[in-house]
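A student in our group prepared the protein record below, which I am reviewing. What it holds is a sequence and that sequence's fold in token form. My question to you is simply how this chain folds and whether the tokens agree. Do not assume that whoever made the record got everything right. I have pasted the whole thing underneath without changing anything:
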Amino acid sequence: MNAGIDWEDQSMLTSYPPIADGELDSIPWPQHPRPTFSHGVQFCSGTGQHDTRQSSGDDYDLISWAKIVDMAVHPTTVDKAVGRWFIPSTYNHPDARSFQRQTEAGVYQAIPVDIDCGNHSLEAVTEATQAILGDCLVIHSSRSSKPDNRKWRAIAMIAEPLAGSAYGHIQRAVIDLYQERGFTLDPALERAAQLIYLPNAGEFYQ
């Protein structure tokens, strides 16, 4: 299982080139004001793979970090087809599920992690995630996780918001850091508008 691959717009399914020294410092920011870090930040959110708003012209829902933390403690128990998801970007306009638009206008204040193989323990995932991404995070098992095949999601808040154009580079670096510790992450998370399904308990939940 992967974290909800969005087939709506495949135009940004690119492989990122190597990052040159100082390149991230020169990446342009979107035109709207650069936000400051806040636990009250609101992320783009929706329900189910088929929740699209471009035709209706409605903005997507918003979900706060506090609500995500609460969901980890009190997860839903619904079919994934109607499960709630988020994109770790504050951009929630009707075209927010476009990879290209999120790359151009998205502002990211969280890094998601998707570990679907290896049957790692919660303790091992927590240790690696804290070492790589810090302590401001949520870790929970995925909907399809089982006692003998544990799968994990982690979401870490970051102190400095990222432009959408930098997000894929940072995600690739995170994937490499986990790889060095023996974890294989889903590379789909390099995509700027990838859906991240929120806590939703299945057969096994921690």
